[in-house]
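Posting this for the archive.
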Amino acid sequence: MKPVENRILTKLAAEFQPVHLEVINESHMHSVPPGSETHFKVVLAAAAFAGKRQVQRHQAIYACLAEELQNGVHALALHTFSPDEWLASAVVPASPQCLGGSKHDH
């Protein structure tokens, strides 16, 4: 696991005590140099999200990862669940390939 990915995982685990947590580096799907840590998918199920709207959940994650977002992390694809929602569904959509930058050009 690379340093930024590990830091994101560690911070989210400490902050939210999740019942399920995945941090997936999706940088390779974007127009960035090989080995980059700029684009991540986060799948997080935690009791802290029960009764919260998606925007509130996302704001909590952004606050937790403010340092990473100011220092190189360009994008987070957030999939957040309460424990009950996760048990009922546990479905996370696949991420699309990037069409921006040089991958979109010829």
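DSSP finds four helices and three strands in the chain. The mean pLDDT is 86.
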